[in-house]
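Write out this protein's structure.
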Amino acid sequence: MKLRTRFTELAGIDVPIVQGGMMWVGRAELAAAVSNAGGLGILTALTQPSPDELRREIDRCRALTSKPFGVNLTILPSVSPPPYAEYRKAIIDSGISIVETAGHNPREHVEDFKSHGIKVVHKCTAVRHALSAERMGVDAISIDGFECAGHPGEDDIPGLVLIPAAADKVKIPMIASGGFGDGRGLVAALALGADGINMGTRFCATVEAPIHPRAKQLLVDNDERGTSLIFRSLKNTARVGRNSVSEQVVEILKRPEAKFEDVAHLVRGASGRVLLETGDLDAGLIWAGQVQGLIHDIPTVAELMGRIMREATDIIQRRLAGLSVPAAA
């Protein structure tokens, strides 16, 4: 089943569904499954402990799929940042054709990727950021609504408004992120002006996602209220799945004098990895969006994507086609 949009043409894929780059989750088995089902799978570069390990993971993904897949490189401010230039070189040397960038000041990376003929999709949370990335020369935008897992920015604009607001101004292809998990969402995104959808949390609740079954079941058991917004007072808002750790973080940061250092021991990425790998749901944070309210099972990636495409096709060909528009007077 195929659905052609500007983004499927850009990425060389059959269906306009992208797997988001997710720390500890964006590994070869998940990315290859998404690509094999006709979408665009994404490896997460910084999940790998070194650029050489990333090269090996890219090779492992190629052994699992002959279809296009991409790599996510997220650039975040840090006292001791990872060797971004070396990760970038590993991506270029490995012959990757499409990259998802995210985070701050990506210009150096975008320019280098583009000079090697690599298509760049930049993740944004605001129209002004999308326009800046477009001027920078990226090939497509991934626009994140307030419903998303991770960092939705500080404007609190949900996708129903943000997607068409961006579509009104952005000229390059755009995929919509945040709150997508079924065929209804795909059709809605297309109607709002996007060229496809990006799913992260929904892909975590699939057979191929390389995380513990208890972590997957948490996403099924939670509903749309099952998230916490942390770091609000620090102007670095993040949406995570609600558990005992996220609730502690929220309570601590309610104090007027609270600083990041007061919660650093609770929010370490290594602790989140322990949760995902061991299923200890109180070990750390689990990044998850409001789409949890639409997750009711743990299918294979192929089953999920096939279902989404059947739902979308049915809506387009039957429900919408059957609506009648009164003739003008």
